[in-house]
Design a protein that fits this description.
195 residues; alpha/beta; Glutaredoxin; globular
């Protein structure tokens, strides 16, 4: 009887130690340092003529600034979109930098619609590709799950080799400009192979 009780106490202590570790692991957000997953977004606005879809593979060799938002998100309108607009203004004439905004819906599906996504991009004068990602399985945004975002506004900066170099809630314009400048100075693996 005493052995069984000791075993039960030991198992309880072990479980008590493991639960916080598992919960901490689940709270980790972002995939910085990992290859950027495909987006699989089916609804797009502001694409080049003749193009009906867009994905990360379309930007091979470029630095990509991916902005995740929801049309009803106050932080997206007060911080995220203005930051995107400021950073884009710095690199507007550089073909080696791409800017993409996607409404990553995880709640408020009836309000955060494709029409509202376009209205949000238009409100900030952004003629960049603007997607709408409610997910294809009813569980919310595919991008959010693949990039492990914690909500919106969410910014992802991807280098020329397709590696996520920033993935978080908030980035200041000067920090984003500095990071993109550094990434532009790095050679892509494709240009290294050609030399």
């Amino acid at each position: 009887m005493k052995t069984g009780l000791n075993r039960l106490i030991m198992l309880s202590l072990l479980a008590a130690l493991l639960v916080p570790a598992v919960n901490a692991q689940q709270r980790i957000r972002g995939i910085e340092g990992r290859p950027a997953p495909a987006w699989d977004v089916s609804h797009w606005e502001n694409l080049s003529e003749g193009k009906s879809s867009l994905d990360i593979a379309d930007f091979a060799g470029k630095v990509v600034y991916l902005f995740g938002f929801q049309s009803w998100c106050p932080g997206c309108h007060s911080h995220g979109f203005p930051t995107l607009r400021a950073v884009r203004g710095t690199f507007e004439d550089q073909d080696e930098v791409a800017f993409v905004a996607v409404q990553t819906v995880f709640e408020g599906f009836g309000v955060n619609t494709a029409e509202k996504a376009k209205e949000s991009c238009d409100k900030f004068g952004l003629d960049i590709p603007c997607g709408h990602d409610p997910g294809s399985d009813g569980k919310g945004s595919t991008i959010m799950r693949r990039y492990r975002s914690g909500g919106t506004p969410w910014t992802v900066i991807i280098d020329r080799n397709g590696i996520v170099r920033f993935n978080g809630f908030s980035i200041k314009p000067d920090v984003a400009v500095s990071l993109i400048g550094q990434l532009l100075a790095e050679k892509s693996s494709e240009s290294i192979r050609q030399n």
